[in-house]
Fold:
Amino acid sequence: MLLYEMQSLMTKEKIINIISDNYSKLTVECQKELSNVSKILMLKKGETLVKEGQHSDKIYFIIKGCARAFYLKDGKDISDWFAFEMEFISSIISFFLDIPSPHFIELLEDSMLLELSKKDVESLADKYHDFERLSKTIVTKTMLQQQERISSMQFHSAEEKYENILSIRTNITQRVPLTHIASYIGITLETLSRIRSRKKRI
Amino acid sequence: MLLYEMQSLMTKEKIINIISDNYSKLTVECQKELSNVSKILMLKKGETLVKEGQHSDKIYFIIKGCARAFYLKDGKDISDWFAFEMEFISSIISFFLDIPSPHFIELLEDSMLLELSKKDVESLADKYHDFERLSKTIVTKTMLQQQERISSMQFHSAEEKYENILSIRTNITQRVPLTHIASYIGITLETLSRIRSRKKRI
DNA sequence: TTTTTTGATTGACCTTTGTAAAAAAAGATG
DNA sequence: CATCTTTTTTTACAAAGGTCAATCAAAAAA
Structure:
């Protein structure tokens, strides 16, 4: 299905209903208010959601497509997070600490997103207990993903780290360039390439 | 002050009030109920809160002392988390996913703790919006600490990782053996020892 | 205090991974 | 289709950090 065809099928109401079902249930009233304050974005591959240095007070839910958070270390592009359909992404440092973003966020595919501002997240969380719970659920899931990632980084070889990400994100190599995968797991593209050719041979 | 002297000074009510002030405000009613379901523990250095393989459905707040979460990889002891005064610790994998704990948790000093069970956390969070918010705050802080840790692990030398933990936990070397610090930052004790002797010389 | 245990340091050696540069392959664009 | 750009692979070489073993130091236990 083409992205522009989805817009009519995927109404904001439906999307919010999916979030409610998959993360934490929201009352109809809360869903309505969430629908009023959120915004659908249709963006092309390569477009940027956040630039380094910006105060980014937005969080994005990915309806279709995928996005990548990355930063520059000594001029080198290092990937810090990938998000696919049904996942959230934001510049967490900027969003939660209200400081300029160290990250860029860009789209790796043509994408459809739901955008929410921190101000609205906060007022919804104040007003609705169930939205507070939803926020907690999202943060908890993120925390558990990070936990998994940390333990995969501790005392694991480049090959083990690559195997690990493949097991979690089965088809990531089809959607994300190897350079980004390499920096995400903390190895160079060259090392990743050697691992892959070693595996092919066997 | 000796640990046994603290018990009379630090009533559960006072401790819960401190949590409320430092994490997220709780109503008096909620504080009372929290006080009813939580329990103070006085434990000696070396004692174990959680063993690998156990279902651990408890979370601990450290009033005095410090604790360490670690796991065994190929028989080797690898530290995964430290918690000091005013911080929470639990076997997060077991607590949030209801599966057997991959971690041990042990005390690095004689300690005073507040213990809370998941069942009680959940019912408090259901009943009180402000307790739900407190939970979110604790999880969010943990997530941000993990974020910091991940970026310190990505493409940083052993020395940079050591400097980084020293800047975050200024006096950690006074309270935690170097072996544990080394495995926490993902290097061997020998490498850490070399870094330290290099720094001493200069 | 002496002994035992645990934690930290040092040295020799070796493996893994990074660096730099070039070539090849795959994708995008006119 | 042909060209240009980006991504990936390959090679040679260097450096960082791991492993193993011996020694030293400090803290607990007897």
